[in-house]
Each structure stands twice: as C-alpha cells, then as structure tokens.
Amino acid sequence: MAAPNVLTQALLVARLDLRRRLRDRSVLIQVILAPVLLALIIGGAFSGDSGGLRADIWLADADGSELSTQIVAALAGQSEPGGEGVSFVAKPGLDAAAAEAAVDADEADAVVVIPAGFGAAVRAGEAAELRVFGDAGDDVVAGIARSVADGIANGVQTQRAAIATTLTAAAQLGEEVSADDVARVAAATPAAITVRDSRFENTFSMMSFFAPGMAMIFLFFVMGAAARSLVTERREGTLPRMLAGPTSPTAVLLGKALAVLTLGFTSLLMVWGITSLGFGVDWGDPLGVLLVITGAVVAIAGISLVITGLARTESQSEALTIVFALVLSVLGGSFVYTATGFLAEVRKFTPNGQALMAFSDLAAGNASPADVLPAVLLLLGGGLVTGAIGLLAIRRGLAP
Q: Is 365 exposed, middle or buried (0-12, 13-18, 19+ CB in 10 A)?
C-alpha cells in the first residue's frame, strides 16, 4: 500500500496539532476568549452608537468683520450641528477666554477663534492670528481643528497675494482699482482646487483602526505560541518519534505551518466578526478585508516561523516573540492613529503597518479590493519568503 502523499500527510499533521491544541485551555483563551475580550474593550473605549468619530468644533467669531463672517458661514454651512462626523458650529461674539472655558467644560470638542481686529489686520496687510483650543487628550479632533485654522490662514494668505498682485498690475497699467473691490471679487471667486479630508466624513470609525491594530499585536503571541510547539516537541522527543515513522519531515513542517496559519486566521476573523456584528463597525469591503487579513496572517506567520527557527529553547523563542511583537507594534503604528515624521515613514516597512494602512483605507471608503491588492501581495510575498527561511532553519535544526 502506497504511503500518503506529502499534502495528505501535512493536512493530517495540521488536524492532529489543532485538535491537541483545542484541548488545551490556554490555547482556547488565546484564540477565542482573548480576542473576544479585546474586541469588547476596544468597543467600549472607541464606539458610541455607531463607533464613528463625532465632534463639534466651534467657530468663535470675536471679530464680526465681513471677512470673518464669510469664513464662518462657509465652514458652518458644510455640516449640521449635532450630526454624524465633524460638525462646525458658528459662535458669533465668542472670545478666546470663553472659548477656552467651553473646551474645559466639555461643551465644545475644539474651538477655532477669530480674534477681534482679524479682518482689519488682513485688509491692512498686517500680521493676523487665529487661535485654536482643544483637548490635549484628543489628538484627532485637536488636529482637525488645527487643520481648519491652517486652511483659513492659507486661504487668506493666497487671497492677500492675489489682491497685491492685482493692485500692482493695475497701477502699472494706469488703472484705478479699489482694494475693497478686488477683495470682494477674490472672495466670491470659487477655489480652483479643493481638498477632501475623510476625517470630516462619517465613513471611518476609530474602532476600525484600533481593532485590527490590537488584534495583530495579539496575533504575534498566538502564532508564536503555535510555532513554538516545534521547539517543545523537539525537546520532549515527540517530534523525532514522528519523523521516525512514514511521515516525511516536509509534511511535518508543512502541517505545523498550516496549523499556525489556521490559528492566526481564527483569531483575526474573531475580532472582525465581533466588532462588526456586536458594535456595527464597518471595516470596509468584505473581500478587501479578507485579502488584507490573509496577507497579515501570512506575513506574521512567516516571522513566527523565523523566530522558531532561530530559537534553540522555548524561553529563547518566547523572548524573541515578545521583542518582535512589541518593536513591530511600535514601528507599525499600532498604538498611534495620527503617526507623523519618522513613525509615518517606517511603518510602511513593517507588515502590521502595511496591513493597518490598508485596513484604514478600506474602512474610510477610500479603497477597493483592487486598491489594497499591492499591499496584500507585498505582505504575502514577505510572509512566504520569511516562512520559507524559517522552515529551512527549523528543518536544519531537526537534522541529527
């Protein structure tokens, strides 16, 4: 009777390994209970009725000039106060002290103040300032308010440059043109380019960022423990006895790798299902989410197998797993939504960072499955390469 082929043997090894692990209560906690609790904690921390970002940004007009009134009217007209997403609320006559008090009292999430004399300073070509008040504990809303202020400043500066250029050209041509007339025409002229910021729309949930971010941190430990079983079985003599039979080393390693991948998929799919069904969080196009989950699981599995191949003892494997998990989590931006500077660049070179960016684009409605496919292929390629290296290192360690 011919021996089963390698694939059949690998599937048998994977099934036996998973069955043995499911009898272990600690594995059940890691794969099922912990992801559930993680999703519940994240849900309670980041979800309201729908889990989306809601914020009221006040526009305090202490100037009351024609320019400040136009600015406030334009922004306030973009949203409905108390609605979904970010709302802009006009507050005529509110000064800086009252604005700061409103933020401290949690009446406003952030306030952009147009101080008295702003319009006159702009018309006279003098320095003018805007003030922003926000909660130091809410970087996202404070960042949006700062972006609004920057947009106002850039618009005013562009308008000022256009008026100065027009007046200079008119003087050279011998024409008499009023600065007020030029300013009025410039203000009424629509912008040639507009920028849409998905943070102003209710298409993105903070939970849809932190849920996969935290789940992938946990994924390192789940899959690391599964891969580490090879070290344990080698120490206890179970693996040599298995290899002494008709099962080939290749089938054993492939079966163990399949078991690692299955545990990883189970863990991440659990978080996706719980946050979606339990909290109504929209992760984006389901096909795109499945593709990114596949890429992330394969990439992290590859790293886990490399760690297993490098380690000679269980303690070494556990220590390396912790180090890799924490370092990649920090560099990948799993703990920080608004990554900037060095962190924003280096996260592109980490598997969890690539996956997080793809998850965020899907959740914000800015990407389709085709758009995230390059990131998925990069994750799959990196996972297959590191996984092959890890399996070769493990097989070499099994050699007598």
A: middle
Beta bridge partners of 132: 112
Specify the pTM. 0.61
91-95: long-range contacts, CB 8 A cutoff, minimum separation 24: 91/58, 91/59, 91/60, 91/61, 92/61, 92/64, 93/61, 93/62, 93/64, 94/58, 94/60, 94/61, 94/62, 95/60, 95/62
Smallest Cα–Cα separation from 199: which of 109, 118, 113? 109
Domain positions in the chain are 6-48+205-398, 54-200
Residue 42 · residue 86 · CB < 8 Å? no
β partners of residue 361 = none
CA pair distance 377, 374, nearest whole angstrom: 5
Q: Where are the alpha helices (DSSP H) in 237-285?
A: 238-244, 249-279
Burial 232-256 (b: 16+ CB within 10 A, else e): ebbeeeebeebeeeebbeebbbbbb
Q: Is the pLDDT of residue 331 over 80?
A: yes
Query: Is 54-200 a domain of CATH 2.115.10?
Result: no
What is residue 290's predicted lDDT score, i.e. its pLDDT?
95
- CB burial readout 147-178, b (16+ within 10 A) else e: ebbeebeeebeebbeebeebeeeeeeeeeeee
pLDDT tens by residue, 241-270: 666 666 677 777 788 788 888 888 888 888
